[in-house]
Design goal:
- The protein has 171 residues and is α/β, with parallel strands linked by helices.
- Strands 1-2-3-4 form a four-stranded parallel sheet.
- β1, α2 and β2 form a beta-alpha-beta unit.
Length: 171
C-alpha cells in the first residue's frame, strides 16, 4: 500500500546526485529495522535495559510483507533516482539489540527470510543482490549468521554478498 509508504525516508535525491556527479554507480541499502508493525516487540528501538532481549525480531508471519517492503524500496529508489540498487542488506548488525533502530536474526531466521525475499526479487525482475549478514566480525557471528543459508540448496542461490563490519581492536 504505497499510500502508507514513507518516500521521504529514502535518500533518492542524494543517490541521483552522487550517481550523476561521480564515478560511483553501485549503491547498496541497509534497513536498520523493519517497520515496527512487522516486529514482535512493535518497537524500532529495543528496551535499552538489555542488549539480549529476544523479542526484537521480525515476526515470521511478516516475511512476505517484509519482502514486499524491500521490493518497494528498490523500486522507489530506481523510479526516483534512476539507479537500480546493486545490493540490499537484510539487516544491519543482527546479532544483538543496538541502542538505535535494530532487529535481531539468527542464521536460521536469515535462511528462512532469504527464501522469501530472493524469489520475490526474482519475480519482480530486480537484479539487486542480497547481502548477509553485515555483522561485527567477531565471535564467529558472520559465519553463524550466513552458514545456514550457505548450507541450504534453496536459499544459497539468493545470497549475493557476504559482508561484515570489522570493528575488532586488532583490525
Amino acid at each position: 500500500d504505497y499510500s502508507k509508504f514513507n518516500f521521504a525516508a529514502l535518500p533518492t535525491d542524494e543517490i541521483r546526485k552522487v550517481n550523476e556527479q561521480t564515478n560511483c554507480h553501485k549503491f547498496f541499502y541497509t534497513p536498520l529495522t523493519p517497520p515496527t508493525w512487522m516486529k514482535q516487540n512493535k518497537a524500532a528501538f529495543p528496551d535499552p535495559s538489555t542488549l539480549w532481549a529476544t523479542n526484537n525480531i521480525l515476526s515470521p508471519d511478516m516475511y512476505d510483507e517484509f519482502a514486499e517492503y524491500l521490493v518497494a524500496i528498490c523500486k522507489t529508489i530506481k523510479e526516483k533516482s534512476g539507479v537500480e540498487l546493486y545490493a540490499m542488506s537484510l539487516q544491519n548488525e543482527p546479532t544483538f539489540n543496538e541502542p538505535y533502530g535494530s532487529c535481531q536474526y539468527t542464521g536460521a531466521q536469515f535462511r528462512d527470510l532469504i527464501k522469501v525475499v530472493g524469489p520475490r526479487f526474482k519475480a519482480e525482475n530486480l537484479n539487486t543482490r542480497i547481502i548477509l549478514s553485515e555483522d561485527v566480525a567477531s565471535n564467529n557471528w558472520v559465519q553463524n549468521n550466513v552458514g545456514p543459508t550457505i548450507a541450504d540448496p534453496v536459499a544459497k542461490p539468493y545470497l549475493g554478498i557476504v559482508a561484515c563490519h570489522n570493528y575488532d581492536p586488532d583490525g
